[in-house]
């Protein structure tokens, strides 16, 4: 009995000991939340431990806040990657620190804030000889602005480079010169362009205008380089900014579309390209004419040179589109086949997306997309010039430009494309899906204040009346954009749709219906007269 009691006491004691040691308690692994901005002076955010650690002697935090560097006036004598050892440069003989941070050197003048030697404008800092040996004292060498060199210091101030070509073309020097204009880092002579440009982008649905940093940096320089130097990339970039402004046309001549149209008129002597009068040489093709009312010429004058059929040897049900793709800077990127998501924002399988481009198939796609995904997938817009791709009788491949009906376009303040009257429409070219660029205010790295999304796209075909041969008129792409003010991107969503439709002239159907009803009515009257006569004969009626 005593032994049993003793065993119980031992078991209870062991159990209490185990409980006290927390062996059977759940262990929680928690750490304090810290970020680089939480680390004070002399400390950095260590990316391994996710905590703040103190820098060593004579060290300060780097600008990123994630590394320790030598403080001003100290050079690196050893670095293992994780740790740095610093030593002060002799303040009397070699007070400067070399740009790589590993040497001390005498300076011909003052020091910069970071302790390196300072050279005056137009000169570069030379710290080593041609063999790489460190000099006792640095030298400030002047770059030659003479015609043989046309050189200036590069952005690092360490080597002479040829100055920008527009400076040389305008003033035969690396200085823009009095009376000339500097815009976007380029130098231009006076021209018939406005001296100031409107860089605010209007988001009409919100009643809000954003002072766009992209337009501020690029609008004036792109317009000037396009007009004065016939720079093809600059012309495309200017056209893209007009497209981001919804192709809107008004009496304002210094916004993106106003500048584009000014250049279009000023370069009339250059002629057109591809035998298309709307397509000016050097410029992108953005408009069908210079005013509304010309839509019927593009949409109803002639049928497509290709016929569609559902059966027989001439079966053809493929609707093929291709696009010339440009980035915001105006660079041509590639030719791209349309049909696997470039015009369809809703995610789906490639097979279902391609099904929209089967002739005669009415197609409708709707979905809701988070704004955070749009910001992630579209860091900047891509621009598409759309064409219908087909082959003519001899097998030669041809492209037919597809017109665009932008429902957001304003002509002198009026939304002329939102009505059903084709005679008021103003057809355009070039489309984008998501614009997260023009709505950025302070820096290009900042999150946009507003984004613009193509929330409704419809491709419609009109059947040619009085024909049974599968003929259709050129297709029309209608697009409507939504302006979205960014607030909480993780909760904001946007509804988008894509459709392919086929239409026919209802007037023709109405006429045929009236004829059919008239014929049937006449037959019915004749039939009733015959029946009446037959009935009278049977009853011997006089």
UniProtKB/TrEMBL annotation:
Q: Enumerate the UniProt keywords alphabetically.
A: Signal
Query: According to the UniProt entry, where is the signal peptide?
Result: 1-26
Name assigned to this protein: Transmembrane protein 67
Q: Which organism is it from?
A: Anguilla anguilla
- Output one GO BP term: cilium assembly
- Signal among the record's keywords? yes
Coiled-coil residues are none
Q: Which domain of life does the protein's organism represent?
A: Eukaryota
Pfam families, alphabetized:
Meckelin
Please give the InterPro entries that the UniProt record associates with this protein.
Growth_fac_rcpt_cys_sf (IPR009030), Meckelin (IPR019170)
Instruction: Choose one Gene Ontology CC annotation of this protein and give it.
Output: MKS complex
């Amino acid at each position: 009995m005593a032994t049993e009691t003793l065993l119980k006491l031992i078991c209870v004691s062991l159990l209490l000991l185990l409980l006290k040691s927390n062996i059977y308690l759940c262990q929680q692994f928690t750490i304090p939340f810290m970020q680089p901005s939480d680390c004070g002076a002399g400390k950095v955010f260590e990316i391994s431990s996710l905590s703040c650690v103190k820098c060593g002697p004579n060290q300060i935090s780097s600008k990123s806040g994630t590394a320790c560097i030598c403080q001003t006036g100290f050079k690196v004598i050893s670095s293992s990657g994780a740790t740095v050892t610093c030593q002060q440069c002799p303040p009397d003989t070699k007070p400067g620190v070399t740009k790589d941070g590993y040497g001390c050197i005498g300076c011909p003048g003052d020091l910069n804030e970071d302790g390196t030697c300072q050279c005056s404008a137009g000169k570069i800092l030379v710290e080593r000889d041609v063999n790489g040996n460190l000099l006792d004292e640095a030298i400030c060498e002047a770059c030659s602005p003479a015609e043989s060199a046309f050189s200036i210091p590069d952005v690092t101030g360490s080597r002479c480079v040829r100055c920008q070509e527009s400076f040389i073309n305008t003033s035969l020097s690396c200085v823009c010169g009095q009376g000339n204009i500097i815009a976007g880092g380029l130098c231009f002579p006076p021209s018939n362009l406005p001296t100031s440009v409107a860089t605010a982008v209007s988001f009409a649905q919100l009643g809000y205008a954003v002072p766009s940093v992209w337009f501020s940096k690029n609008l004036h320089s792109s317009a000037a380089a396009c007009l004065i130097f016939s720079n093809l990339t600059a012309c495309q970039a200017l056209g893209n900014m007009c497209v981001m402004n919804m192709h809107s046309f008004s009496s304002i001549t210094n916004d993106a579309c106003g500048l584009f149209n000014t250049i279009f008129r000023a370069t009339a002597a250059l002629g057109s390209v591809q035998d298309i009068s709307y397509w000016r040489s050097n410029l992108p093709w953005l408009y069908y004419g210079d005013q509304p009312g010309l839509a019927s010429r593009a949409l109803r004058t002639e049928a497509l040179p290709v016929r569609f059929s559902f059966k027989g040897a001439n079966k053809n049900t493929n609707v093929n589109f291709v696009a010339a793709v440009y980035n915001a800077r105006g660079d041509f990127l590639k030719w791209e086949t349309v049909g696997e998501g470039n015009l369809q924002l809703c995610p789906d399988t490639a097979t279902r997306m391609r099904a929209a481009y089967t002739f005669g198939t009415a197609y409708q796609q709707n979905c809701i997309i988070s704004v955070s995904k749009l910001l992630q997938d579209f860091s900047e817009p891509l621009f598409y010039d759309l064409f219908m791709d087909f082959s003519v009788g001899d097998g030669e491949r041809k492209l037919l430009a597809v017109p665009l009906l932008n429902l957001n376009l304003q002509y002198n303040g009026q939304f002329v494309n939102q009505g059903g009257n084709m005679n008021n429409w103003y057809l355009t070219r070039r489309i984008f899906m998501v614009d997260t660029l023009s709505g950025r205010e302070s820096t290009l790295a900042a999150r946009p204040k507003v984004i613009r999304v193509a929330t409704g796209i419809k491709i419609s075909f009109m059947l040619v009346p009085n024909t049974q041969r599968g003929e259709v008129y050129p297709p029309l792409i209608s697009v409507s954009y939504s302006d979205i003010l960014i607030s909480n991107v993780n909760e904001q969503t946007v509804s988008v749709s894509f459709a392919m439709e086929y239409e026919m002239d209802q007037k023709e159907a109405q006429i045929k219906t009236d004829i059919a009803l008239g014929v049937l009515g006449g037959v019915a009257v004749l039939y009733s007269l015959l029946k009446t006569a037959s009935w009278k004969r049977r009853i011997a009626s006089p």
